[in-house]
Design brief:
One of its GO terms (biological process) is tRNA wobble adenosine to inosine editing. With 155 residues, this protein is an alpha/beta fold. It has five helices and five strands.
């Protein structure tokens, strides 16, 4: 499958998060052409601030592979990862990261921080951003717009 096809799958996972009232971010981990783990944002539902889609997918993949080192994997995620997620991605030794929407305010790959280039990390993650960017950004934008409109009506 192509990066765009995997990203479409991640978008469907993000929609599951939205259906559960979570910020719509989806992620999946691919090894040798097959999905070994998939997840979506779950911090509200699980009462766990670390339950971002990327972290949940990394945890699941670790269980599948019986190893925290996820060597030769590619992580697809609908939004540029935050600092917590980028640290976990590097620690897990993910080979490649592909994300959809850029996050200029909190993105830790190439925006607010550039952890993909950080000299202090012992693993460099290859990355590609902007895959189906418009679709990923629209999903997030629509979610937050609806949330603001609900807040106006109730408050």
């Amino acid at each position: 499958m192509t990066d765009a096809e995997w990203m479409r799958h991640a978008i469907r996972l993000a929609q599951r998060a939205e259906d559960q009232g979570e910020v719509p971010v989806g992620a999946l981990l691919v090894l040798e052409g097959r999905c070994i783990a998939e997840a979506w944002n779950q911090p509200i539902q699980t009462h766990d601030p670390s339950a971002h889609a990327e972290i949940v997918a990394l945890r699941k993949a670790g269980q599948v592979l019986h190893n925290y080192r996820l060597i030769d994997t590619t992580l697809y995620v609908t939004l540029e990862p935050c600092v917590m997620c980028m640290g976990a991605i590097a620690h897990a030794r993910v080979k490649r990261l592909v994300f959809g929407a850029y996050d200029p305010k909190r993105g830790a790959v190439c925006h607010a921080l550039q952890l993909s280039d950080a000299a202090f990390l012992n693993h460099k993650v290859e990355w590609t951003g902007g895959v189906l960017q418009a679709d990923c950004a629209a999903l997030l934008g629509d979610f937050f717009k609806a949330r603001r409109e609900r807040a106006k009506k109730s408050g």
